Amino acid sequence: MLKPLGDRVIIETVEKEEKTASGIVLPDSAKEKPQEGQVVAVGTGKVTDNGERIALEVSEGDRVIFSKYAGTEVKYDGKEYLILRQDDILAIIG
Amino acid sequence: MLKPLGDRVIIETVEKEEKTASGIVLPDSAKEKPQEGQVVAVGTGKVTDNGERIALEVSEGDRVIFSKYAGTEVKYDGKEYLILRQDDILAIIG
Amino acid sequence: MLKPLGDRVIIETVEKEEKTASGIVLPDSAKEKPQEGQVVAVGTGKVTDNGERIALEVSEGDRVIFSKYAGTEVKYDGKEYLILRQDDILAIIG
Amino acid sequence: MLKPLGDRVIIETVEKEEKTASGIVLPDSAKEKPQEGQVVAVGTGKVTDNGERIALEVSEGDRVIFSKYAGTEVKYDGKEYLILRQDDILAIIG
Amino acid sequence: MLKPLGDRVIIETVEKEEKTASGIVLPDSAKEKPQEGQVVAVGTGKVTDNGERIALEVSEGDRVIFSKYAGTEVKYDGKEYLILRQDDILAIIG
Amino acid sequence: MLKPLGDRVIIETVEKEEKTASGIVLPDSAKEKPQEGQVVAVGTGKVTDNGERIALEVSEGDRVIFSKYAGTEVKYDGKEYLILRQDDILAIIG
Amino acid sequence: MLKPLGDRVIIETVEKEEKTASGIVLPDSAKEKPQEGQVVAVGTGKVTDNGERIALEVSEGDRVIFSKYAGTEVKYDGKEYLILRQDDILAIIG
Q1: Residues on F contacting G at a C-beta cutoff of 8 Å
Q2: Which CATH number fits domain E8-14+34-93: 2.40.10.10, 1.10.3720.10, 3.20.20.140, 2.30.33.40?
Q3: What pLDDT, in 10s, does the model give residues B26-56?
Q4: Please, what's the b/e burial string for G42-81 (b: 16 or more CB within 10 A of its CB; e: otherwise)?
Q5: ipTM
């Protein structure tokens, strides 16, 4: 399997159809849209300036929402994954 | 429910009609306009370089004012939310 | 009332007429002009990497000078305020 | 009087005539020119991440040289001042 | 042999044919593609502000995935290597 | 005399004729050229986040090499000086 | 001799002929090319925020590979040197 480094997380993305019902474009809406996925592996955590390693908040199996344009796509064993930093994960779907 | 990570907060925004009474444009006014909402979930806090986790100042239920263009829009369970960092919240309406 | 977060301060601005007597434009003067106001609420202070919360230097009632383009305009209870970080405040008028 | 915040300093600038005797422009001279002034008030100092407040090196009455384009011009009590951070002060004229 | 400094790692890259089966360009896919390689040498680690040296997570012999455009190509003893910082390594193939 | 602040140093520059013997321009040479001078005054040092003041490495009288475009030119008592941060000094000529 | 300051290192560069055998330009190769040299002097090390001085990893006499566009060229005693920060050194040739 893939073992992410530091504060990185590997995610299997979930395809969601984006249906823009009405299609009205609000000019002052510059907000980015998130994406959904499932955590399949987590790193050992980031090391602070004090030499402490801070464990990640997300765990294997968590379903998460993350910033759409974050991370790097990886193809491994015929499947597509996304490797991103925990900081790009917005929330856990609990 | 959605559980935000770190210093993130989930907000249910409150629609407010923006009535620009007179419509006078002041050329040296480059200030951004804020928006109002209600906190529905808070993260466990940011971890400092010393490994300490700092609890958030806002709590579930707080009505807050935040920077208009901050955060990421999330649709969950048929409702729209906004996930942003506590630092994008300007004030609590108390 | 509005309760600002962290190192933020709420200010009621004081309108001052900007009379440019002569109108001579000095080409090498790239300095920004400040604005005056009165502090109506202060946050609980910024939290450092050591987890310490540093109290603000300004207090409710202080008349202050701040950077003109700093902060976010907020309308609350029919009145207009400005929410900015203490670092955008230049001096207290004592 | 005006009381500057943090590591800020208030300066009464000294007008100096800039006589460019020969007017030869050296193309590889990208250095900025400084300006002279007198310190009329100093802040209480910057607070570090450890929560320590570091007293300023300059004191009221010091004549100083500072970066020409630094700071904010303030008019107070009919006089013009400049509020800048101590870091923009290059040297004390002793 | 080459001995990388600090948090740097030397990698022997693995050539992979990039077959874009269908060739459909998704306009909102701004994600970068990673590359594969084998670690041949690791540095002694980064030194923190506390003077502590933090050992690297990757070891000689590890097969890793890294950001495609990271690092510096080095030719040594007739072979081509890539020297990059551990932070540019995304995951270990375990 | 001029007393530089913090980690600043005052230098009396030494004019050197730049003779480009052959005049061959190497297109991949983007390196900046240094300049020589003598230290005439040093600051008391930079203050770290721990509140410690770190004494400078250079002393009055040192002949040094520094980045050509660094610092601010100052005219004082009929002489021209350069005020720069110690970090812009590359080496002491010993 | 020249005594570099802080985390700086003085290097005598080694000329290497760059023979691009085939001349095929790979469009997605944006990697920079390194250069070789010998360390002739090292600084006393960088001072951290804790006031600790961290000794350099490279020593006089080390043959090193460094980023091609890093540093400042210095001519001293008829010879050409390069002064760069240790962080621009990629690896020691051991």
Answers
A1: 28-34, 48-50, 52, 54, 57-58, 65, 67, 86-87, 89-94
A2: 2.30.33.40
A3: 444 445 567 899 999 999 999 887 788 999 9
A4: bbbbbbbbeebebebbbeeebebbbbbebbbebebeeeeb
A5: 0.80
